[in-house]
TrEMBL record:
<dbReference type="InterPro" id="IPR035994">
    <property type="entry name" value="Nucleoside_phosphorylase_sf"/>
</dbReference>
<feature type="domain" description="Nucleoside phosphorylase">
    <location>
        <begin position="82"/>
        <end position="271"/>
    </location>
</feature>
<protein>
    <recommendedName>
        <fullName>Uridine phosphorylase</fullName>
        <ecNumber>2.4.2.3</ecNumber>
    </recommendedName>
</protein>
<dbReference type="GO" id="GO:0004850">
    <property type="term" value="F:uridine phosphorylase activity"/>
</dbReference>
<dbReference type="GO" id="GO:0005829">
    <property type="term" value="C:cytosol"/>
</dbReference>
<dbReference type="Pfam" id="PF01048">
    <property type="entry name" value="PNP_UDP_1"/>
</dbReference>
<dbReference type="InterPro" id="IPR000845">
    <property type="entry name" value="Nucleoside_phosphorylase_d"/>
</dbReference>
<dbReference type="GO" id="GO:0009116">
    <property type="term" value="P:nucleoside metabolic process"/>
</dbReference>
Length: 317
């Protein structure tokens, strides 16, 4: 598998019709024959992640190496290894200057955790390589978030049901009107796992923005603001947005564009608009439990769907 992942059960003539549409622009690209069609490679592997495709599981979790995500950093243990170990014994499988990847077992399947730097552009680099070169089918963003809506507290967990695309990376791919919509079965699995674990969870719309400071209505150097920044916070609260991050929309949008299922689990570390200051690590233990339990639930949902011969999962009546 590489590139687009089309749904199962589609008739071959219909698949070929959409393939022709996909190829039309590429076939007329004047630089098609000199550009690397499937990205850069070093030593036969994708150059930026450095992964051997055989070492990457069906489920992939992308997570920023974020100092706000833990109260005390674990000396000598990388972020990918630490998070992958929450699923069980984990093995480091790749490391480059940009990304570290570890893979663990998930009840007969495998889950790979890719630790990244911050922001949608870096998530794009990892996503593209993984979708081009591996068998991964489900992509999850896991990380911290800044609470926005007044009822979202530090320590809470947010499962995104939709992401405001206020970053520029995904706009290079598709019109801003295209929705960043996590997969409904992934959302259901995460919400169910959170409730099973007694987690303070919210399910709703979140927002990704490039600027963590002015983009969230916070003054920059020397108190720098422009008039429209004063309205940022209340604008998105009125729209019902729960929290802000910088990466989830890249994972959800790119995954959806190329046929993967997606989701986002966020631990809330602060809510300055509501007067609740930063608590490093707040919510991350519960977010981790939600991530692990949610992927286990999703695996069981998939197994039941396959046994029933159905293309889509639906809750029992």
């Amino acid at each position: 598998m590489s590139g687009y992942l089309d749904p199962s059960g589609i008739a071959e003539p219909d698949l070929e019709a959409v393939r022709r549409i996909r190829r039309a622009v590429l076939d007329s690209h004047p630089y098609r024959d000199v550009l690397p069609a499937r990205g850069l490679r070093v030593g036969g592997r994708p150059a930026l992640t450095g992964v051997d495709p055989a070492d990457v599981g069906r489920y992939v979790v992308l997570s920023v190496r974020d100092p706000l995500g833990e109260e005390v950093a674990s000396a000598g243990i990388g972020h990918a290894q630490r998070l992958a170990s929450a699923f069980g014994p984990a093995e480091p499988v790749a490391a480059t200057g940009l990304f570290q990847t570890s893979t663990a077992s998930l009840e007969g399947e495998r889950v790979s955790v890719v630790a990244t730097g911050s922001g949608a552009p870096e998530l794009e680099l990892a996503m593209v390589e993984l979708m081009e070169h591996t068998e991964a089918e489900v992509f999850i963003y896991f990380g911290t978030a800044a609470g926005l809506h007044p009822f979202v507290h530090p320590g809470d967990v947010v499962v995104s049901t939709g992401v405001v695309r206020e970053e520029a990376t995904t706009r290079a791919y598709v019109d801003p009107a295209y929705p960043a919509a996590p997969s409904y079965d992934v959302v259901a699995a995460f919400v169910g796992a959170a409730q099973d674990n007694g987690v303070a969870v919210h399910a709703g719309v979140t927002r990704s923005t490039d600027s963590d400071i002015l983009g969230n209505g916070r003054p920059s150097v020397g108190g720098y603001l422009q008039p429209h920044h004063r309205e940022t916070i209340d604008y998105w609260i009125r729209a019902g947005v729960l929290c802000n991050d910088r990466e989830a929309s890249a994972v959800v949008t790119l995954g959806s564009l190329f046929g993967r299922r997606t989701g986002a689990v966020l631990g809330v570390t602060d809510n300055f608009p509501a007067g609740r200051s930063l608590k490093p690590g707040a919510g991350m233990a519960d977010a981790t439990a939600t991530l692990v339990g949610g992927l286990r639930r999703l695996q069981r949902l998939d197994q039941a769907r396959v046994r029933g011969g159905r293309r889509y999962w639906a809750p029992p009546p």
